[in-house]
Amino acid sequence: MDFSLGEELEAVRDLAREILTDRATPERLREVETSPTRVDERLWADLAAAGLLAAMLPEQDGGAGLGMAGLCVLLEEQGRRVAPVPLWPALVGALTVAAHGTDRQRTELLADLASGTGRATVALEEFGPVDPLTPRTTAVADGSRWLLTGTKAVVPAPAGARHVLVTATTTTGPGLFLVASDAAGVTWEQAETTSHDLSAHLTLDGAPGEAVGAPGEGAVEELVRNAFVALAAVQVGVADGALRYAADHLSERLQFGRPLATFQAVQHQLADCYIDIDAMRVTLWQAVDALAEPFDAEAADRAALVAKWWATEGGLNTVHRVQHLHGGIGVDTDYPVHRHFLWGKQISTTLGGAGDDLARLGAAVVDGVVAS
Q1: Given 3.40.190.10, 3.40.1360.10, 1.10.10.10, 1.10.540.10, which CATH number is that of 7-119?
Q2: Which of 36, 91, 215, 278 has the fewest Cβ atoms within 10 Å of its own Cβ atom?
């Protein structure tokens, strides 16, 4: 399997790295962390102006058609700089609308996203042990629209989101619904997260929504699958950025007249981090490859779960080790590596932790064996 990026994806990587390195400085991150929304709208506008938001969208929607591969390259660079912009929820949602939405939905949502003037977020999680593919939130048909009732937990980056893509259960299976963020029956409760981002709990009381694709016909499965892969991509960048901080710190800090990086115990810790990150990256790109044509939904689901488990387990292990290797300075909020620890911790619990991932993967394997 060839994991080389190719010219287009390398161009995305290089441009994203240049913009994020220049804009997402520790000083700017501190400024955004104390802002009302915790979103760097200036950086978001810069990414849009550079064409990086549009690049992932299909060509018929004004994009470059880079899809999930392009998105994962962008997300890895974001994670490396822990840049506070809502890339994964906005773009994973947009790709789902591009695949399943009506012409009007695509025109309204995707053009605004590409220009940086509007975006949507996704509401996939609920309180308690709820599988994102079987939500407790319900949707009932009401003529040409649907009425949604239920509560969604920790909806990412609600600030600036004009719409929410909400998963809900219908009589014909799980469905995906587009709900205006200020619609009647919609209530938001702001919630802090581990990573300093602001999320919100969303309560729906008969809120009107539009179906994105027919319920039970794959939109929810695609959104959740792509969200798993997107989170894995961010985590690869977070872990890699953390390891770079550790390598620089340990090569400069002296103990007994020698750089700490020359001590065997330290080298073992760094080697474990390197191995975990390499496994995370390999399984990520296996999952991205599984999303391409010819497409096999069962194989793609398994690959996405493997990538998410590695991101959850390996990513969390890496940021823990890096924090430990920095000693006291690792928990000093004036030193930037603490953000990688917080992001790694947050991602490791989003859409379920490592135990949930293994349970889902085991069920997928069993289902595959029974079916064969």
Answers
A1: 1.10.540.10
A2: 36
